[in-house]
Amino acid sequence: CFPLQELVMVSFYNNKTLTKTPINHSHSYPFETHPKMADKPDMGEIASFDKAKLKKTKTQKNTLSIKETIEQEKRSEIS
């Protein structure tokens, strides 16, 4: 949120006082310097992956309350 004074100053700005900035196109773009993707991805990491090293996890279900339970809790809070 800008202060009102700064917004007023923007409305009075004279853009005719701006000067041109020369642009240098001699640099190479990033996509020209990066190596291209191979036709086939490197599968070495996938082949050496050991599934046994993964930690075991337990899934917990978080069931939602039914409408009647919610209404009963609301009634008990009011009492």
Outline the structure in words.
This protein is mostly helical and 79 residues long. It has four helices and no strands. The chain has helices at residues 4-11, 30-33, 44-47, 67-78. The longest helix is centred in the last third of the chain and has 12 residues, at 67-78.
Q: Span between N and C termini? A: 46 Å
Mean pLDDT across every amino acid position: 78
Quick one: biggest sheet?
A: none
Describe the global form: flat
β-strand number:
0
Instruction: Spell out the helices and strands N to C.
Output: HHHH
Strand content: under 5%
In short:
This protein has 79 residues and is mainly alpha-helical. The protein is built from 4 helices and no strands.
Summarize the topology:
Elements: H1 4-11, H2 30-33, H3 44-47, H4 67-78
Keywords:
79 residues; mainly alpha; 4 helices; flat
